[in-house]
Amino acid sequence: GLVPILEVGAVASAVAWMAACASYWRMGPPLKGRLAAGFGLLVTSLMILVKLVPLVPGHFTQYEWMALAIWLGLGAALRMPAATESAQSAQASAVAGQASAVSSGDQRQN
After folding, report:
1. CA distance 5 to 71
2. 37 vs 106: CA distance, rounded Å
């Protein structure tokens, strides 16, 4: 059903919240902000551990682990073409930049 997907989504939200808190912490905010970011890191760490540690009631079941694996697999599959296209466009830009530099060098010699 829907429960494994919702549970994985809850953990993904906690990971995103943790990333936001860690990013804010790294920005070096004033003490109040640093305390808030530290508290957010603590809370999200506990939220994630509750789901991942098998000794805690409410941890991931085999269906939630399967949903997570499928989600990660889909994410990786969707990311691969984008990474390949990005690398190809970067390579094409580099080649175009070299060609432009060579042609501008030819113009200076004339």
Report:
1. 9
2. 56
How far is residue 62's CA from residue 46's CA, in Å, rounded to a whole number? 21
The pLDDT assigned to 106 comes to 55
Q: How many CB atoms lie within 10 A of CB 60?
A: 19
Rounded CA separation 46/58 (Å): 13
Span 11-58, pLDDT tens digits: 999 999 999 999 999 999 999 999 999 999 999 999 999 999 999 998
pLDDT at 102 over 60: no
Helices and strands (H, E) in the chain, number of each type:
3, 0
pLDDT the model gives residue 1:
80
Q: How far is CA 19 from the centre of its chain?
A: 9
Q: Would you give the distance in Å from CA 74 to the centre of its chain?
A: 14
What tokens does 66 get?
A: 């399967």
DSSP string over 67-85: HHHHHHHHHHHHHHHHHHH
